[in-house]
Amino acid sequence: MTEDDGFAARRLIRAARSATLATEAEGQPFASLVTPATAPDGSVLLWLSSLSEHTRQLRRNGRCALLFTGAAGGPNPQTAPRVTVTGLAEVIEDPALKSRWLACHPYAALYADFADFALWRVQPGGALLVGGFARARRLSAAELAPPAAESLLAAESDILGHVNADHVDAVMAIAAALGGGAGEWRLVTVDADGCDLACEEKPALRLAFRAPVTTPSAVRDELVWAAREARAKRG
How many CA atoms lie within 13 A of 121 on its CB side? Predict the structure, then answer.
């Protein structure tokens, strides 16, 4: 494990399109499948129905844990990198963060306005990063948090508009390199650790930056590098 463990953990968390949520009711643990996204500050966003048992449990006790799992490096599932985040969940009213969640899960637009659904945010209190078999390290909330990037957040809308209007070929090349199929891929979010690309109702693809960034110019550098790598791979 390295000094970049916080970044490695965030890469896994931000790329996840599903996760396991652990809640509790009267001392009995309960696990369920959820579909997360992340806020710019690294907190986890969930779009949950009040009809779900895990939601009822969170309303009684917001303490919870989330398990995010990457791909195994071989036949042994224990080689898969993974992060367990512990934190406190709360319901929030934030149209911008709801839009961010929907950008990563566009298929959910069909039920995005159902009255029984609400946006929840899990503020991490700490995490356990397992980088593979017998490679584990505990991370504090501070170690897990991304760098402050106020200028990047303020410029996100302009970045998305510029890239999607003027660099369509680059976005398509990056999407193809990430395993995206045919379609009109668009850049839909940018944060300090990377960006998300979406197309129609497909779950978003995640482009992780080589290192955390804090400025729009650094985002440009990462996108230029990613496009060049994607085109070189394509030949």
Answer: 15
